Amino acid sequence: MTIEHSPLPYPADALAPHISERTMGFHHGKHHATYVANLNKLIAGTAHEGASLEDIVAAADMPSPLFNNAAQSWNHAFYWNSMSPGALEAPSSDLLAALEASFGSLDEFNSRFVAAATGNFASGWTWLVSDADGLSIVNTDDADTPLRHGRRPLLTVDVWEHAYYLDYQNARPAYLNAFVEHLANWEFASANFAAS
Ligand code: MN3
Prior knowledge:
globular, three-stranded antiparallel sheet, single chain
């Protein structure tokens, strides 16, 4: 059994003009596909063959090619679901209450999320996570993922340059503002929060 390259949950042009079809073609069709293809080569004939992607992410040595390709496969599938075309859905009342408890307001969360992601010096990811202390914003480097740190991801944005360079060049904050204003999938984040 091989790990599947998860399809986009919307057409490749659905996030335009905020993220172009061209970016999605490279990012989903090339970058994400390559992580999954490399992962399948690495697990072939090993004890990981047949394991779920989550189990491989949990078990792989860090850092290692196995961890990097497994975590990037998982992180990207989570990222596609962290965005939604069309109107921004609101957080559920439960998630909104938690956001207000941790950040004061949704607007304050949005500005802190953009600031954290703008300041993420690595090629990495910025996450809204839930743990025993409530909600927080965390940055991870390279392929690292909150799954390996006992935290439940609710929402993520990819801040590797390949996520935005074709559309925004070096203007990472413009990409991040588009993410929080037009793309963030609060329905997905709310479902993740409800399951936490
Ligand atoms: Mn990426």
